[in-house]
Amino acid sequence: MAGTPILHLDGISKAFGPVAANQDISISLARGEVLALLGENGAGKTTLMNILFGHYMPDAGRVRVDGRDLTLGRPRDAIGAGVGMVHQHFTLAPNLTVLENVMTGTESLFAPASRTRAARARLAELAERFGLAVDPDARVSALSVGERQRVEILKALYNRARILILDEPTAVLTRPEAERLFATLRGMAGQGLSIIFISHKLHEVLSAADRVVVLRGGRVVAERATVATSREELAELMVGRRVTRPVRGAGTPGEVIVRARGVTAGVPGATRLHGVDFALRAGEVLGIIGVSGNGQTTLAQLLSGLARADAGEVTLLGRDATGLTPRALVGMGVGRIPEDRNTEGAVGEFPLWQNAVLERIGDPRFARRGLVRRAAARAFCGKVIERFDLRGGTPDTPTRQLSGGNMQKLIFGRNLWDAPRLLIAAQPTRGLDEGAIAAVHAEILAARAKGCGVILISEDLDEVLALADRAQAIVRGRLSPPVATDRLDARRLGLMMAGEWQGLDDAV
Amino acid sequence: MRFERRQKVSPLWLVGAPVAAMALALAIAGVLIALAGAPVLEAYGRILTGAFGSRLSATETLTRATPLIFTGLAAAVAFRAQVWNIGAEGQLYAGALAVVALGAATPAGLPPALLIPALMAAGAVAGMVLLLVPVFLRLRFGVDEVVTTLLLNFIVLLFVSLAVEGFLRDPLAFGWPQSVPVAEEAMLPQIVPRSRLHAGLLVAVLAALAVFVVNRATVFGLQSRAAGLNAAAARFSGVPIGRTLLLVACLSGGLAGLAGAVEVLGVKGYVSTDLSPGFGYSGIVVAMLAALNPIGVIFAALFVATMFVGADGMSRALDVPSFIADVTVSLALLTMLVALFFTSYRVRR
Fold first, then answer.
1. Is there a domain that residue B231 lies in?
2. DSSP code of A486?
């Protein structure tokens, strides 16, 4: 790894309004090195990489590649200097082929003809050399997420990138896919490329990087060789204090409160469910684990009163779920945590108090004769804010000003205040930082201890292992048989998520 | 240059930005007046005296503002729930037509205290029906209501033309294409004697207050706003989106229908194809100028009416084309939209 330095970030500072996203950050990267940039949401990782790539103009500081100063704020200059970026949200055109996507932007608009043949040969050569096999003539819309990511990397390599930046590259991958990606990245580093990847997952930082730079609050708080640090140390550095995620204790499952038999259902734009069976008891957590896009959305909508089963039956708290509206569910004591808190969980322009009561506006506590009882609604919101330690808002604050973690506290708070009997939590910690994850986990376990049954739909293995009593994998709209999580480890769960549950003999 | 959402909007911005926007619009229009060779300040002075300089002109301005308040409210109510009702013009004519059809033959024995509200209600219902159809088509089949409501305007206007040339034609109008008049006792009382200003203005102001209360205090107001701002969140929260939007259509179409009813019962007494000089379309401008606030609609309608009534007088005195009123109102709309943008966003390099 100890090659010559290829990249220097020197004293980078950048503020957005009153928020200092980056403060005097200096980092260097050696040739052939894999560097991880570790930090929570809002630590400034993505801002820093966007400055390096020329998307943002820093307030101060400079970037040098091979000892030459980069013109800042110019992506073209960064690309020309050999910096390639793979964004978290891919920037491919789905209606074009792989080859066309890779070539986009590399040829002059006024060239008489596109030099497809040469490009095809080069793409094949790159794919071969770095082990990134893709069909150059496939349309991007037909590719899996992992394949699209490979195309993004190939695109950067095609632009002669020597420094590759990957923003949260594993956010959308299964664990086997992620392991394969990191093997590829190591191979690329071995051939002299330098790589920076952004992450907030400790295990992948430790296993894939040579060196890790920890950012917190826009500053570099530590720099460690991965061989000389530990998971615990990194976690503490990242959060700034000791954070431990709670783990469930022994539970006392009660009667069955949810039962689904042979359920087939579909919602527009999401994977259909095919003949799904599951059951949930009071006081237990059932984990539905899977890579997103395998039918979780349909399942969450079905259980939240937004979709109907085409076949099979679902019973919730003793009632047939067909015909249960969201309001009816809320009235029966079903708490619902939506999959996407920003679009489904709250109206961003509304003040907090309106979002606190919108799904309970049929409740006589909050409306009488068609009139909203503002005082009662405000008071309810104030109590939720206090009880769930929601920071950065009063009942009158516009909801969009909340951080993701605080918005999730609002959503949990409005659902848990009335001690629900059933909680449907879809991706409850997606995009949250470590501190907020611990808080959400604690709330889920507290609800379980009070006898609430929880269906936890998640793509986070550690989360399911820590919280769920039993787990079922969801793959292409089908559910595996349930397995007690005591008998599972991350590897086995990972296999289940990949669809390999034949011969599961310990179904419970 | 980038735009960032403001974390906190200071009250100074909320008041200052619209005022600055109006000032800027008047300044730009001033340049045009100067180009037309007229003294700018005198021109604006003449617009003001033309609109408020005498009892007659003041009542005329208020009369002109009355239907604009209704159509402005119609647009504000609909846009707030993201129902793009561009059809207030058609709904206005539908309301007017309903009033004339029912009010022409004196309904036996009804006292004015019952007759007038009944006719106004009929006008409102006609407007409602005309908007319910496009909104239903959108909910059921995803038909874009911008297109349907806009095109219905022309259909309704042609239907009015058919009516006033045919089955509602006034035989005593010397061949003018106008309908039979409504009965004398059905007309709205004047509130200033020897002027055209009628009680419809009071109804319009009451309607604005009512809409304000509905928006602010009712479950329907909360739900319609949620449905408009974020349909996914509204659906997740169990807001009955279809029912809510149909109710919004009733309210919006009803208000536009009232504009037509009141214009017939208060001013004209009959319907013709020139009953409205584009009140329905101007209502959209009024609503945007008011940032969809129902109380603001009253003032925005007054501003627009002032410009149009005042510009006539100014035009006669100073030989500046009265189109300057259209230009000024349009400029005000543009500057106001920019100002509203800058109350929520700031510029960052």
1. yes
2. G
- pLDDT for A144: 77
Residues of chain A with Cβ-Cβ distance to B222 below 8 Å are 354, 358, 361, 372
Distances (CA, A) of A372 to A362, A382, A503, B169: 10, 16, 56, 49
Contact A347 B346 (CB under 8 A): no
Distance, in Å, from the CA atom of B68 to the CA atom of B64, rounded to the nearest integer, reads 7
Selected for mutation to probe chain A from B229, B236, B244, B346 (highest A CB count within 10 Å) is B236
Neighbours of B31 (CB within 10 A): 10
Nearest to B229 among A327, A347, A361 (CB): A347
Do the domain assignments include residue B127?
yes
Are B217 and A371 in contact (CB < 8 Å)?
yes
The pLDDT tens digits of the residues spanning A52-67 come to 888 888 888 988 888 8
Which amino acid is residue A456, in one-letter code?
A: L
The pLDDT value recorded for residue A3 is 57
What CATH superfamily classification does A246-333+418-508 receive? P-loop containing nucleotide triphosphate hydrolases (3.40.50.300)
pLDDT for B129 equals: 97
pLDDT of A1 above 50: no
Q: Point out the residue among B7, B223, B226 whose CB comes nearest to the CB of A401.
A: B7
Of the candidates B333, B255, B266, the one whose C-alpha atom is nearest the C-alpha of residue B71 is B255
Domain of residue B163: give its range.
72-290
Q: Where are the domains of chain A?
A: 5-239, 246-333+418-508, 351-417
Q: Tell me the one-letter amino acid at B290.
A: A
Average pLDDT over residues A243-267: 86
DSSP B58-77: HHHHHHHHHHHHHHHHHHHH
How far apart, in Å, are the Cα atoms of A192 and each of A27, A126, A149, A490? 19, 14, 21, 32
Give me the residues of B, 222-281, that contact A with CB < 8 A. Answer: 222-223, 225-226, 229-230, 232-239
Which of these ranges, A314-323, A328-337, B232-241, has the smallest mean pLDDT? A314-323
Task: Tell me: pLDDT of B332 over 50.
Answer: yes
In the numeric block, which tokens belong to residue A223? Answer: 């720099």
Structural domain contains residue B334: no
Buried/exposed code over A170-179 (b: 16+ C-beta within 10 A; e: otherwise): bbbbbbebbb
CATH superfamily, domain at A5-239: P-loop containing nucleotide triphosphate hydrolases (3.40.50.300)
Q: Cβ of A343 and B220 within 8 Å?
A: no
A322: alpha, beta or left? (left if phi > 0; alpha if psi -120 to 50): beta
Closest alpha carbon to A238 in A259, A223, A260: A223
**Chain B residues touching residue A330 (CB < 8 angstroms):** 238
B17 lies in a domain? Answer: no
> Cα–Cα distances in Å, from B167 out to A190, B163, B179, B180?
89, 5, 9, 10
Residue positions counted in chain B: 349
CB of A171 closer than 8 Å to CB of A91:
no
ipTM: 0.83
Average pLDDT (B328-345) is 86
pTM: 0.78
Please give the tally of structural domains in chain B: 1
In the predicted model, what is the mean pLDDT of chain A?
A: 87
Inter-CA distances, B239 with A411, B236, B245, B261, Å: 17, 8, 10, 33
Pick from A327, A275, A335: which is nearest to A300 by CA? A335
Task: Assess contact for A93 and A155: CB atoms under 8 A.
Answer: no
Summarize pLDDT for B261-296 with one digit per residue, the tens. Answer: 999 999 998 999 999 999 999 999 999 999 899 999
Our measurement of the distance from residue B213's CA atom to the centroid of its chain's CA atoms, rounded to an integer in Å, reads 19
Question: Best residue in B214, B216, B222, B340 to probe A by mutation, most A CBs within 10 Å?
Answer: B222
A391: tokens are: 């920071």
pLDDT for position B343: 81
